[in-house]
Specification:
mainly beta, M1 Pyruvate Kinase, Domain 3, seven-stranded mixed β-barrel, three-stranded antiparallel β-sheet, 4 helices, 35% strand
């Protein structure tokens, strides 16, 4: 199939534990379920019978204070390796918090996480039937929902909110910064798997023109671009060294219908690497 090179892979990210900070990669295997190991683990909140998610920051914004990294590279079809959970930005308060990284393979992992987070949780490596999460919609004038929490049912068999791969272009981030130069549109706020660098001179929300098309990444992976990615409250939350900033979400609403980036599904698995060419297929 013919196509046009539209850019290259600028960065790769994987998030071993849902709603925790993730790990930057140079190379990653991609299966039909997304980047191998992405959102492989999640926490189950006993009080609400929901997956714990920073989309409900009133309960779970603290998840973004932790980072998870695999202790060995996940391999498609092989047992999942353990992930190490450590503090990303931590101010010690009493006995709470990780003095050293916690392995997801630790028999006491659920109990220790419950103590750190102040709620009874169980660490899961597979979703329960009908699993869902609560998502909070803050006051953003252009959104249909205002200051409400509603339920989001996750796709069967996954901890994803929707599609298995999320991508954003450097052109989108640059455009938002041009429009709102006082704000910090750090890529980490948007939690992508793929950061795409378009060809020199390409400007604006370029990836949204690819919706409905396919992208070939490198020599093997083919992705279907499903839709533009509507942003949520997570972009506004304090995480890593980034401060809380509601105007990040309001800026996407003012300038691009609350969207930034695209959601994709996997048509052909394989491997992707930083600097791989991105080909828009015709």
């Amino acid at each position: 199939m013919s196509g046009t090179v539209v850019g290259r892979v600028e960065a790769l990210w994987r998030y071993p534990v849902k709603s925790m900070l993730g790990e930057s990669l140079q190379l990653a295997p991609v299966t039909e379920a997304g980047l191998c190991g992405d959102r492989a683990y999640a926490l189950w909140d006993h009080a609400t019978d929901r997956v714990a998610s920073a989309k409900n920051p009133r309960l779970w914004s603290s998840l973004l204070h932790y980072r998870a990294r695999f202790v060995a590279a996940p391999v498609p079809g092989a047992p999942l390796p353990a992930a190490a959970i450590s503090a990303a930005t931590w101010v010690a308060t009493g006995a709470s918090g990780p003095a050293s990284p916690l392995l997801t393979s630790d028999p006491q992992a659920s109990e220790r996480l419950s103590a750190w987070l102040g709620r009874q949780v169980s660490l899961l490596d597979r979703p329960r039937d009908g699993a869902s999460l609560d998502q909070y919609w803050p006051r953003v004038q252009e959104r249909e929902f205002q200051d409400v929490v509603n339920e989001l049912v996750l796709p069967a068999g996954t901890f994803f909110d929707s599609c298995p791969i999320h991508a954003i272009s450097t052109a989108t981030l640059d455009r938002l910064l041009q429009l709102e130069p006082s704000l910090d549109f750090a890529v980490e706020r948007f939690r992508p798997n793929l950061v795409m660098a378009p060809l020199d001179g390409t400007e604006g929300f370029v990836e949204e023109a690819w919706v409905g098309h396919t992208l070939r990444i490198g020599t093997q992976v083919v992705l279907q671009v499903k839709d533009a990615c509507s942003r949520c409250v997570v972009t506004t939350l304090a995480q890593g060294g980034l401060s809380e900033e509601i105007e990040i979400l309001r800026a996407t609403a003012r300038h691009n219908n609350v969207s930034a980036g695209i959601r994709l599904s996997v048509l052909s698995p394989g491997a992707v690497a930083v600097d791989d060419p991105i080909v828009l297929q015709q």
